[in-house]
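Q: Got one fold?
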Amino acid sequence: MKKVLFFAISLLSTTMYAFAQPRPNGRVYRVALFVPSGAELLDFAGPGEAFTQAPGFEVYLVSLSEEPIRSQGFMTITPNYSYKNCPRPDIILIPGGGTGRIINEPEAIDWVKQHYDNGGIVLTVCTGASVAAKAGLLEGKKATTYHASFDYVKGYCSDCELLRNTRYVDNGRIITTAGISAGIDGALHLISRIKGQDVAEEAARNMEYDKWAPNEGLMNYENTFIRYVKQHGPEKAGQKYRNELAAGAGTLFFAGEMKNLAAEMSAAGEYEKAAQVLEFCAGHYPGEAIIYNQLRAVYALAGKPVPPTPEDFMEAALQGKAEEVSALYEKAKEAFPGWILFEESRMNWVGYQLLAKGEVKSAIDIFKLNADAYPASWNVYDSLAEGYMNDEQWDKARKYYLKSLELNPDNDNARKMMAKIEER
C-alpha cells in the first residue's frame, strides 16, 4: 500500500515541477502590460515575449478592469489584474490600439502619471504614446509613434517633438517606439539598459528575432552617474555618490548600464577598468549572476585566474558526477569568495533532469549543493524536499518543506506535498 501511495505522490510531484522553478537571480522587475480592448496584438505580445525571454522580469497583463478584452477583432484575452489592483510595477508598457479607452478614464491616466512621478518607467508602442502625452510625460521631449499617427499623438501634447523613421526614443524613464514590431526593439533596448546588452542579445536569439539593430533608436538621455564612472572610475564615483548609494543603487544606475560600460572598456582593451566597474556593480547588485558571468570573461582576457563556468558545473552534474561537482564547488568557493558560481535556476533544472532519469541520490546531492549556494531561497528547499520525497525519506522531505514555508509562507506546493506525505 505504501508503494502505491508513493507512486501517487510521485505523479503529483512530477506535475508540480512548475512550482519548484526558482526565481531568477538578482533583482526582479515587474512589467505591467496595460492593454485596453482593441489593442494591437503584437504591440504588447512582442515586448511581452522579449521580457519573458530575459532573466529578471515578471510580466503580467493589466487592463481597465478584469473583464476579458478583444485584440485584433478575433482574440479574447483575460487580464491578470485591473490597473487598480495589480502588483506595483516597475515598468508600464502601453500598446497602441484602443488607447482612447485609457485616455477617457482620468483615474487610469493618473495611475500612469503617478507611476512615472514615483520613479517608474513607461514604455509606449505605436499610439500608446498618446496616453503618455495625455499624462504629460512627453512635454519638452523628443518621441516617436506609428508613422500614420503623428497628428493624433501631437494632439495630446503641446511641446513634444515627434521623430519619423526612428524605432525608439529613450528619454530615461519614458521610452516611446514606432509601430507594432518596433515595440520589440524598444523592449530589447530597455532589457539592455536594465540587465545588459548580452542579456538582450540572448533574448533576441531565443526569440529568433534577427531584425534588432540597437543603434536604430535615439538615446536622448545620458546617465550622469555612468558618465562620472567613465570619467573618474568607480572608486571616486562611490565617494561622490556615497549617500545616494547608501539609499539604494537602483536610483542611480541599472546593473545593465554598468555592464555595458564594462563591455565598452573591455572592447577597448581596458580590462582592469572593466573588472573594477563590474566588481563595483556586483557590490551594489548582490545576487546578479549575470555580472559574475561577465566578470569571469573579463578576468580571462586580463590573464587572471577564473572560476569554473556554470556549464562546467552543469555538464558534470548531468553526467551524475555529484561528488565531483561538490568538490569543484568547494574549491571554487574558497578561491573566489563571494562569487556567484552558477545560477540557481540552471542547477535546479539539472536536479530535475536527474530525477526524471531516476538518479535520485545524485539529484538530492545537486539540490543540496544549490541550497548551500542559495540558503535564502525558499525554492531550493522545496526542490530538496522533493528529492528526499522521491527517495522516500519522509522526515527529511518534511523538514525541508517546512524550511521552504518558513522562508515563503505562501508556498502552497509545500503544504500540498506535506499533506500527501501525511496521507501515505
Notes: The domain at 29-219 is CATH 3.40.50.880 (Rossmann fold). The first strand starts at residue 29 and ends at 34.
